[in-house]
Amino acid sequence: MGESLTHPDPQPTAHIAVDHYSAVHLAAETARSVAERCRLPGALPDRAAVIASELASNLANHATNGALFLQPLPLGGGMEIFAADHGPGIGELQQCLTDGYSTSDTLGAGLGAVKRIATTLTIRTEPGAGTLVCARLTAPDETASADAEVGAICVPADEEQTSGDACAIVDHGPARTAVVVDGLGHGPQAAEAAQVALRSFHRAPDSPLPELLTAFHRALRRTRGAAVGLLRLHPGRAEYCGIGNVRVVTLTPLDLSNRLSGQPGIAGLNMTPPRVRAFPVPAGGTVLLHSDGIDHRWAQAPSPFVHRLPPPLLVASLAHSHRVPRDDATVLAARPRQRLP
Questions:
Q1: For the CA atoms of 46, 47, 52, 57, what is the dihedral angle to 10 degrees?
Q2: How high is the pLDDT of residue 99?
Q3: Three-state DSSP class for 202?
Q4: What is the pLDDT of residue 119?
Q5: What is the pLDDT of residues 131-153, one digit of tens each?
Q6: N or C: which end of the chain has fewer CB within 10 A?
Q7: Do residues 200 and 314 share a domain?
């Protein structure tokens, strides 16, 4: 069946706009709740709350247009907390990562404590572009999950409690298969369609992609239907099979290519025979899937800073800077698995 601990009916990513210091308490409580839902043992829920509190305090005090995203890890057990902003960037990053470093007037205070507590910490910062942080927290026997070169964020439309989008990713042998689902419209009925599609995916994620998409079409007939994008990553290459408005893009530090979208139609309502499109994935390349809740214009001229982002920070950047607030938004990014020995 593949290697994944994704919940069969996952909740959407918790999104907290840090526009006031009162958001710090909310961030801490949300992090504790997500950690408990992920069944992190012992004191780890409290440590998750500390990480979120430190990151939110940093944003509240020093950043511009800051936000946190909190959720279970897309692969394996554990959780992750993203911080994103459009602030001034961190000038002395290595100094800020020293435990005990503190400052009252610049971005970066508390990052040393976050680095000490988190299983892994990934940061990219640039003047004028802002700062992106991903802190992952796992149980001691799950630390490999924190190193996966995968990122995924699924945020509901503003004023909605449930997301009509959904996503999942599963490793099987040397391959990695991902799905992004965009239920028609948004709200509870769209969310129902998305979850029906996810349950179908998890029954046999290693099936040939046309078979998977055909199974989605059958499963979604009693729902309002959905757009679906399926991605299979192999070392050095990828396959895409989709219907509707889920887009795929390949990003390298120097280039953006393989802009594809699904065949016309809606899974569950009307679908032509699915076809697979194959394309190469250069060394160090990242392949993205995203719903139309991410404004496709982000790909017209991404900055060099965006080109160089690893998958977790890439999804945080797109969700923070290019989300369409009135729609559910999902973005998933992954690199092929390294060749197995």
A1: 100
A2: 56
A3: helix
A4: 96
A5: 999 999 999 999 999 999 999 99
A6: C
A7: yes
Boundary of a domain, candidates 112, 147, 182: 147
Same domain, yes or no, for 195 and 330? yes
Distance of alpha carbon 298 from alpha carbon 290, whole angstroms:
11
Residues 121 and 98 in one domain: yes
Determine the structural domain holding residue 308 and report its residue range: 150-334
Query: Within a 10 A sphere around the Cβ of 192, how many other Cβ atoms?
Result: 18
Q: How far is CA 123 from the centre of its chain?
A: 16
Of 339, 248, 320, the residue nearest 286 (C-alpha): 248
> For the domain that residue 200 is a member of, what is the CATH number?
3.60.40.10
9 located within any domain: no
Least confident span in 31-45, 79-93, 161-175, 279-293: 79-93
Model pLDDT, residue 106: 46
Q: Is 143 within 8 Å of 308 (Cβ atoms)?
A: no
- Give the CATH number, domain containing residue 135: 3.30.565.10
Cβ(150)–Cβ(333) below 8 Å? yes
Identify the band that residue 107 occupies on the pLDDT scale cut at 50, 70 and 90: very low
Tell me: do 170 and 141 sit in the same domain: no
Contact status, residue 159 vs residue 15, Cβ threshold 8 Å: no
Which pTM was predicted?
0.92
pLDDT of residue 95: 61
What distance lies between CA 194 and its chain's CA centroid?
A: 16
Last residue in a domain, options 97, 128, 147: 147
- Edge to edge, what strands does the sheet with 150-155 contain? 150-155, 329-334, 286-290, 247-251, 256-261
Tally of domains within the chain: 2
